[in-house]
Amino acid sequence: MNILDIRNLTIELETDAGLVRVLDRFSLQLAEGEIHTLVGESGSGKSLLAKAILGFINPKWKITADRLWWRQYDLLNLNPAARRIITGRDMAMIFQDPSSYLDPNDKVGAQLRESIPRGELSGIYLKRRADRQTRAERLLHRVGIKNTEEVMDAYPHELSEGLAQKISIAMAIAHNPKLLIADEPTTAMEPNTRAQIYRLLTKLSASQGMSILMITQDLTAVIPESKQMSLIYCGQLMETGPTEQLMSTPAHPYTEAMLNMSLYHQQSEPKSRLPTLTGAIPTLQHMPIGCRLGPRCPYARKACVQQPALRKIKSQQFACHYPLRDGDDHE
Amino acid sequence: MIRYTLRRMMLLLITLWLLTVFIFSLNYFFPGDPLTNMSGVRASDALNYQLATATRAFDQGILAQYSNFLGHLLRGEWGQSLSTQQPVFQELLPLLGATVELSLLAMIVAMVIGAPLGLYAAGQRRGALDRLVMGLSLSAYSIPVFWLAQLLILLFAVKLGWTPISGQINPLFDIEVSSGAILLDIGLSDSPYRSAAFADAISHLWLPVLVLAMMPATMLMRVTRNSMLEVMQQNYIRSARARGLSDRRILWRHVMPNTMQPVVRQLGLMFSILMSNIIITEVIFNWPGLGSWLVKSIYERDYPVMQAGLFTFAALILLVNVLVELYHAWRYPQVRKELYAER
Hints:
Chain A has helices at 46-54, 80-90, 108-114, 125-142, 148-152, 161-172, 191-208, 243-248, 253-267; strands spanning 2-15, 18-31, 35-40, 61-64, 67-70, 73-74, 91-94, 179-183, 211-216, 228-233, 236-242, 311-313, 316-318.
């Protein structure tokens, strides 16, 4: 059962050079309790997608979609107030530089207590306050912080980035969200802390049936618990499907290129060439027509100036005219 | 915080010490006899002059003279005025009270007007009201205070007659001067006409307060507006909103404290500007404060008074700046981290 269903989501930005399509007919489905990894280079529109889901929308953006559904709600056609209530209740997000998402002039404990929803507390004022305190402590225990008193009495600038990320996870799970969007949550962290954060996230997902949309830069950061994966390039969906299947038998040239890249360290000869695609990511104003990978794709042919439709082999979907594995079982 | 406080205190002491050295050296740079400049005793008054020579160690070297000067300064024996023959320190105290009262009221009025208008302008960003408020604040900021004061006197005192032209209070009320701050003095006095005196004092007060408040208020307005606009774009505000906190809570709990942080930092600077404006304003409104006293002493070449006025103004500005910095560092802890790059 999909709780998040996105079909052909398009986001256009108004710039001086006219409308720029930063997300081009993007689709994504997310099931309950599933960890889905979205892989894309910087500027591919993955953070924008997260913002569109959460409703951090700039009035200058033009957003159209065939479907943008969260459970039974059609997010695009809800009024902003109702949408904010639903996303505030059901969704949460954690970010790359966690400490900038904490108020620098407020103690961590106060901010944590504040994020516990009022509706879940009862009794008179003093009892509510005590309840908030114990619940805040419990939240910190759940994210693996033991010296709760010390941490709650600290200001955000006194925390390490790893600790700040744990705090923001604690704040994010305070109202038991159904969906957590993690936007490159471990960039600029030490491998040790990184592993801790990932372990924490997978544990939370398993114990609470929380879906996680993990956004990362490259395939090396895809964790084994993430059963589904999507690749996005310049705002277009390249390929999506079960992680294992994509890793072993990629259909899209982009997936293959990313795979070669991430396997390079383990398999290549010393001093061999880095397996990269030729060229560079095009600027937003000069996107190629059709498949945006076209100019850089080693297998591109004439047909690639038309945008390919999504095709499906088993549960693997990809948008390519000349896939690497042509389906014996075409639909 | 203790370390920070100590450092600021050291800075305050060192600056004050340098100030005393400067003031001391002025006695030798002013025309005339250094001892007369310092003590206010003329050489023609032979007996007292000899006495002053002995007490101020003018028969010894310059270092002894300085240490004696420092001793006199700390004991509050600042010599006597050349024109009134009164002890300078005793003359100064009520004047200081009047000046502090005026500046405090002006600061309060500036904050009450400036900060909310700035917040309001930020809320209406790029709207007609924002432009109006910002345009008005820029033009008010550009008007020199002496001109503004005259214009307002012409309008409110001369043309409309709402307020007396100058002075602190109608002398008929015969309020005894103790602290110099007129509202406080009225409260302390046992005059049967206290409430009438109070109303009269207010009618004298509001115009100079308004004139003085104008410049800090416009500065506050701009600082507050820009600061709030910046805070509104911060990640923690957006994430607070995404977490579903109410607008009111976000405003009071997160936007306001962070907005006020740079504003508080500016208060010291604002006070310095206020102090230079207060000198002119007191002269225009004939306010019996430090500023008009200082200007009068300059006209009369009354060197002991000049020194005392300069020293008091400088010390006041220094003290307020250090206090503002201490409050800033105490209220906003990450400031201390920036200062030491501590973790």
